[in-house]
Amino acid sequence: MAVFTSKHDRVGKDSGAGRRFGAAKVSSVTKMWAIHNDTMTYELLDQGFISIGWDEIGDLRNIGNSRDDIKASVSSAYPDIKPGAVPVWAGTLLRFRDGMQAGDIVVAPFKPDSTLNIGTITSDYYFESQADTHRHRRRIEWKKVGLSRTVFSQSALYEIGSVLTVFGVKRHHSEFLAALTSSTADPVVIARTVDAVSSPEDDVIDEPRAERVHRQTKDFVLEQLTRSISPREFEEFTAAVLRTLGYQARVTQYSADGGIDVIAHRDPLGVEPPLIKVQCKQRTSTVGAPEVGQLIGTLTSDELGLFVTLGTYSREALSIERQRRGLRLVGGEELVELVISNYEELSPTWRARIPLRKVYVVDESADL
Q1: Is the pLDDT of residue 10 over 50?
Q2: Which of 112, 223, 237, 304 is the most buried (most CB within 10 A)?
């Protein structure tokens, strides 16, 4: 499978930043887990739980305590499963039922916007029999939600990118704990706190499957856009990306622009409607409804609005997008995907600022 990858040997933040801030590495005996959930979305946050699938197995409390008991239940519920997958699935179920304990910390990548949520487990395992899916659950109190991936070192992101559904976080425990215990919601301040406890000794090379390489490349692009260009350059970059999509785009004057940073249109002269007004925010925090409303306030009846940010949008902001025609909200994850998909159409100047190249890597479907 061909994917783009960074030309650099190592991407992400400089692990030596901790020495600049002079902070000691955080240590704790509290267990920390990472969990992947590609099925559930905002209900995890609203209702305060974590969950895994394998619903056909039923309530895990009715199964014996040994790994062999779990393996037998997996084989019975899924008779067509590959033999090699049985112990892997059984291990996941055991970790979720028995390994996790109330008070343990959970790091949960959030698929809708590729942010990270961190919380503490508050209950024993339970089986939600009335749920449509993901009935194996535990209650959790979310402490930090919507954390940008740029807060953490690349090696920490690589560790929680494991192909397993539930697994212990070993090497970068201190980074995620620092983010959890930070007294602020400011991603820039949290990133500095995390930098202070990161260690170059934690950097290891992991299995280079396609999805991991692609995720690492997206993290690198987001990191470059966050830390290596100025707000003005971010506006110019947004215009450059729009040009790769077939639009004519120009940047407005930097000050007194009325909140509009880029003007885009389809016709060469820009005199035919619709005109697209673009607002750019080079930040990784959440954009709320009031800021989206300011963009809407600049639009006439025959103009379209585009908001571009490196962060995410609140649910209220996304609700406005669903209700209003001619409004489009592009977050950091989608912008990065646009960059990678149209990378070869970018100007040489921007490709030099974000150096990528195509490589072949092992596909996820490979049975290794």
Answers
A1: no
A2: 237
Tell which wins on pLDDT, 207 or 98: 98
* Sheet strands (E) in 97-242: 105-110, 115-121, 126-127, 136-147, 166-168
Region(s) of the chain under CATH 3.10.590: 17-197
Give the span between the Cα atoms of 128 and 48, in whole angstroms: 13
> Are the beta carbons of 37 and 52 closer than 8 angstroms?
yes
* Entry field: residues in the chain: 368
Q: Nearest to residue 113, comparing CAs of 339, 334, 340? A: 334
Rounded Cα–Cα distance for residues 366 and 368 (Å): 6
Model pLDDT for residues 143-168, shown as the tens digit of each residue: 999 999 999 988 899 889 888 899 99
Burial per residue of 145-157, b for 16 or more beta-carbon CB atoms within 10 angstroms, e otherwise: bbbbbbbbbbbbb
**Which CATH topology does 17-197 take?**
ph1033 like fold (3.10.590)
This prediction has a pTM of: 0.77
Q: Are 100 and 30 in contact (CB under 8 A)?
A: no
95 phi and psi, to 5 degrees? -60, -40
CATH 3.40.1350.10 in the chain, residues? 231-360
Answer whether the bond into residue 83 is a cis peptide, omega within 30°: no
C-alpha to C-alpha distance for 274 and 293, rounded to whole angstroms: 19
User: At residue 86, does pLDDT exceed 50?
Assistant: yes
Q: Looking at residue 253, what is its pLDDT?
A: 85
Residues 231-360, CATH architecture = 3-Layer(aba) Sandwich (3.40)
Q: In what order do the strands lie in the sheet with 327-330?
A: 248-251, 262-265, 275-281, 303-309, 327-330
Using a 10 angstrom Cβ sphere, with 0-12 exposed, 13-18 middle and 19 or more buried, the burial of residue 300 is exposed
